[in-house]
Amino acid sequence: MYFDTHSHVFDEAMLDDLEASGVSEIIIVGYDPLTSKKACDLAEKNHRRCMRILPAVGIHPLYVGDDPEGDISTLRSLIRDYPVTAVGEFGLDYYDEKVRGATSDRDRQRRYFKAQMELCGECTLPALIHSRKAAQETYDTLAAYPEVKGVMHSFIYSAEMARRFCDLGWYIGIGTMVCSPEAKKLPAVVRDVPADMLLAETDREVNETRGGVRLLSVAEVAKRIAEVRGEKEDIMLPILRDNALRLFGQIRPV
Ligand SMILES: [Zn+2]
Prior knowledge:
Number of domains: 1
Radius of gyration: 17 Å
Low-confidence stretches: none
Order of helices and strands: EHEHEHEHHEHEHEHEEEHH
Bound molecules: zinc ion
Oligomer: single chain
């Protein structure tokens, strides 16, 4: 029984496979108004499955537009009309802005970030935060909204930073990168963060392979977390699922 706390699986056949592989809950994360609606429709259509499909609605920092008010009101309507589990993903992404030539877009990202934090507060929903090359600014923004809690999804910053986010009451989302030998800082994060603040996720969009590389499952991520912490799987795996159930505990019936 695995809870995948972050994925972008919009394909029914793939959901069949995930259900058969032992995923018991999965959050389907929107990244713009259109995919947010898609996540909601998917959850509604599939509510008879054994695997619970939980939609999240949000606007990713690389998909921000020019109309925060309009876009937020679209998200607000989805939250009103569907059993939305979380707001996300949203946040700050300054990673490849040189390539994108988009420095001026930092202000738009900031506006959407704050507007979605406010939406979380207004609707009492947890937040799924995407953050790249913006650790301190992300931290400061989250700290400014103490009433909002959630997860730092696909965490890639230092163990020290992870502790600071945890102290603020935020969960740390661990992705498939933890299974890679190239993940230098991530094992220290997994070891340092209290067990009850860790979540497992895949961030998966497509089936099985991407560019010839086999994609890892949430089960593999969870087992790797247990291994890195030197913990027995039968102890660590239920803790990871319980953490997700606690954070997303306001899961509303469809
Ligand atoms: Zn994502």
